[in-house]
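Recall the central idea of this unit: under ordinary conditions, the amino acid sequence of a chain determines the structure it adopts. In this exercise we apply that idea directly, starting from the sequence alone.
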Amino acid sequence: MANKHVKKWLKRIWKFFLLLFVVQLAYVVVLKWVDPPITVTQLSNWFRGYGLKRDYVDYRQMAPAVRLAVMSSEDQLFPHHNGFDLGSIKEAWLEKNKKRKQIRGASTISQQVAKNVFLWQGRSWFRKGLEVYFTFMIELVWGKQRILEMYLNVIEMGPGIFGVEAASRSYFNKPAKKLTRREAAMIAACLPSPKKIRVKPPGDYVLRRVPQILQQMDFLEPDEEIKKLLK
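Accordingly, the structure predicted from this sequence is:
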């Protein structure tokens, strides 16, 4: 009798996880063409009093300069990896073991999209495991252009400011399509800590970081795979 109850519950659990898998897979596929209605991070910011400024725009409505700027700043190997920059992960791990400090960021653009669209902010191993899974899925289903488009629409670019269109209008009073290279670099400079790093008027960090990003943009722009993402 006990065995029957165990088998019954195991069957229910299996069906539940199967349903969960199908639902999340369907959501991943839908988001290849449809923008997410809301994210956990956006909701969290709104509840914490930061407000919620966002305006999803099409890939072609983003200046090529801003696409280049975020790759130069956040993930220079974006067109060439499968979602994970193993070299940076290894360096971060070695640095952690050497200095016994918290691991420095080694997340790719794809990983940041997976975290910000499907998950929540945090550093638990469970969340990191889910991040790996969703990173693999979006690389498989969406492709690089859609991942970059989603990144530029959902990433926080200031307190309660999400996406490049909202950032461009908030900081420069213009649509993202008209951003200059320097303005794009200024927005990209805030991405490591958008609530603390001031874009306008620019703080000391931004003033130091912008020339570095502009230099890296010049270096990356001739790359053939980068060019495809700038068209």
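The chain has one domain: 35-230.
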